[in-house]
Amino acid sequence: MRGVIVRFAFIGLMLASGAAGAQPAWLDKVDESLYLQSPGGFFRSDLSGLLDLEGYYVDQRPPGLLFGKTSFFNPRLSLFLDSHAGTHFYSLVQVRFDRGFDPHVKDHSARFDEYLLRYTPFNQPVLNVQVGKFATVFGQWVNRHDSWESPLITPPLAYENVTVVGDQAAPASVAAFLARRGLADVKTSWLPIIWGPSYASGASMFGTVQRFDYAFEVKNASLSSRPSIWDGRKLGWENPTYTGRFGVRPNEAWNVGASVSYGTYLLPKAELTLPPGKSLRNFNQTTVASDVSYSWHHWQFWGEAIASRFQVPNVGNADSISYFLESKYKITSSLFAAFRWNQQLFDDIPNGTGGRAPWDLDIWRADLAIGYRFNRHLQSKIQYSYSHQKGTFQQGEQLVAAQVTVKF
């Protein structure tokens, strides 16, 4: 696998060099040839991809869902196979070759991140039904989370900040739970509010009726669940999560929505550590959010406010609020700048000695990125982030990330 990744990285550099050298015509021909179509066009499959070459520098432990212990290089190849059968059936398969779903989880990895089958019974998109493994309908950020669409490199804080809530065992006591605040993130056991785009498995129903959008899904795992259990073969549907979003677009500039999600977040292995008489279904994650986006001339704005409650065994309700405000300004037709302000606040819980204490450390983060799109095949970005947790312990206070993306 190492040789495959190196070859892909080398190909990406050669493609980037050609595109930057004002030779997009060759790439256009390659792009336009990656399809298979039946006579008459009833069936068509299109192959596309993103090759990302990323580098991360951190001054301390990697923050959020960046793994490892030091700065590192992270190549990634994502291949997408979109297929249509007539006007009513659609399927998508996404395959990735990288160092793990989250940067630097592994040395080498190859996976099917998404696979779905969608049926649209009418000629208008008022109703779509799909099954498979796919991104959550929660919020708006997921719709633009890939490297080509997002003006920044890392996700918003709510989608990657690891909290002290775990999914594999119940804390022994409130004191043991609160003691986790002074430890480095145990990313193999602890969870964020939402784990990136949350490619869990299940079924969804969604559509658009005039200015209104709706979406509802039933998945095998919660929004906070880790990638290793998103596949239905790894975790069944005994304790499903239900998620929905309702949105309205008053005009071309605005998109406003509200989302809600409810389901079990603990893994089956945690059942042995639960209090007597309790089961996994007694401990759920409830998450609600509002989202908004707005476009005006060279400006784009996005924002989400998310509130989440984990029912933690032997502790009680662990509530948290997170939000981000993000903007992008198109300086020229190719050059753009983006800024995002993130914050996450944690509620107080009884500390077991008659007082109250926040169950995790409040945190804020500022992200600034500059990007340049050379043509429709090549884009580069560089990002600087500064974060600060309330307390003496810090997890990756400064981050510098660079990314080159080749799209085909």
Output the keywords.
mainly beta, Porin, 16-stranded antiparallel β-barrel, 19 strands, 9% helix, disordered N terminus
- Provide a count of the helices: 3
State the CATH architecture.
Beta Barrel
Distance between the termini: 22 Å
Q: How would you sum up the major sheet?
A: 16 strands, antiparallel, barrel
Output the structural class: mainly beta
> How many domains, in number, for the residues?
1
Estimate the strand proportion.
Answer: over 45%
CATH topology group: Porin
Low-confidence stretches: 1-15
Radius of gyration: 22 Å
Shape: globular
What's the level 1 CATH class?
Answer: Mainly Beta
Helix share of residues?
Answer: under 10%
Walkthrough of the structure:
The chain is mainly beta. The chain has one domain (2-407): Beta Barrel (Porin), CATH 2.40.160. It is 9% helix and 47% strand. The protein contains three helices and 19 strands. Strands 2-3-4-5-6-7-8-9-10-11-12-13-14-17-18-19 form a 16-stranded antiparallel barrel. Strands 15-16 form a two-stranded antiparallel ribbon. The longest helix has 19 residues, at 2-20. It is globular and about 70 Å long. The two termini are 22 Å apart.
